[in-house]
Amino acid sequence: MTDPISIPPAAGARIADTAGGGADKAFTSTLSVDEFVVLQQAGFEPLGVAVGTSIYHVGIQVGRWNQNQELTVLTQAMYEARTAAINRMTQEAQALNADGVTGVNLELRMYAWGQEVLEFSATGTAVRYSAQPNSLRAPSGSPFTSDLTAREFYLLHQAGFVPVSMVLGTCVYHIAHQSILKSLGQVGRNQEMDLFTQGIYEARELALGRMQAEADACQARGVVGVDLQISNHIWGEHATEFFAIGTAIRPHGQATSMTAPALVFDV
Fold first, then answer.
1. DSSP state of 110
2. What is the pLDDT of residues 15-63, one digit of tens each?
3. Which of 11-50 are b and which e, b meaning 16 or more Cβ less than 10 Å from the residue's Cβ?
């Protein structure tokens, strides 16, 4: 998606006044003391807080009462809004001349303006590799993004791997209603609800498959820290979002092969 919104003046002034804006400036970060020390031991210096946000009006799409189906309009809205927030956070990291952003927190909030209006925000700490600045950026040349903790980031780096990008996949899915006759036929019986099972199964696979495709597209070797979140948000009980997110990684200093699919790990 094209991102037409540039860094606002207030954010630009803040960025210019942090360590990423000049050697004599103090850094800002979302790090705890422990996380700061761990990143220092790994050879990384924090530069400043990087933030991206997107306030998005989520439209309406009605599914057929008795049919399992993806609600593609809502899927696209949830994906585009998150991607816009992450892209703007990455833009701030670029302005800080960072290698990447670590400890990214991706949040969704509702405001009083209307139940259908959601804010998607991405916040993390822009960091630079002290030994060789700009050497750990993603193959695209952009700063990497990662939702790993400082400890996980340190262990990954010690093992010879670096983050490429946060990768995500989403699917908003309408779960069919059961007919009254079928519901009555299940009273008092142990029985799998196969219509619901099939719908949930398919929705999860769509979300995970899209995350996998993003990892392949950014030339990653694998995905770590996969988290699968399930939420109804504002749509009621029969429309559910399945959201998969993780950090795509690659070997440090090695060419990345596109011949093999990315591996996925839940750590």
1. E
2. 999 988 777 889 999 999 999 999 999 999 999 999 999 988 876 656 5
3. beebbeebbbbeeeeebbbbbeeebbebbeebebbbbbbb
C-alpha–C-alpha distance, residues 116 and 93, integer Å: 30
Report the candidate in 261, 71, 26, 251 with the shortest Cα–Cα distance to residue 158: 251
Give CA–CA dist 87/101, Å, rounded. 11
Question: Could you tell me if 95 and 54 are in contact, meaning their C-beta atoms sit under 8 angstroms apart?
Answer: no
- Output the six-digit token pair for 51: 């933030």
Q: Is residue 168 within 8 Å of 211, Cβ to Cβ?
A: yes
- Sorted by sequence, the CB contacts under 8 Å of residue 4 that are 6+ apart come out as none
Distance set, CA 105 to CA 51, 94, 147, 152, 157 (Å): 10, 18, 7, 15, 20
Q: Tokens for 39, please give them.
A: 């990143």
Q: Mean pLDDT in the chain?
A: 84
Identify the structural domains of the chain with CATH numbers, from first to last. Answer: 9-264 (3.30.110.70)
Contact 110, 234 (CB under 8 A): yes
Tell me the pLDDT tens digit for each residue of 138-183: 999 999 999 999 999 999 999 999 999 999 999 999 887 554 445 5
Environment class of residue 7 by beta-carbon count within 10 Å: exposed (0-12), middle (13-18) or buried (19+)? Answer: middle
Q: Please name which of 110, 113, 66 lies closest in space to residue 234, comparing C-alpha atoms.
A: 110
Q: pTM to 2 decimals? A: 0.84
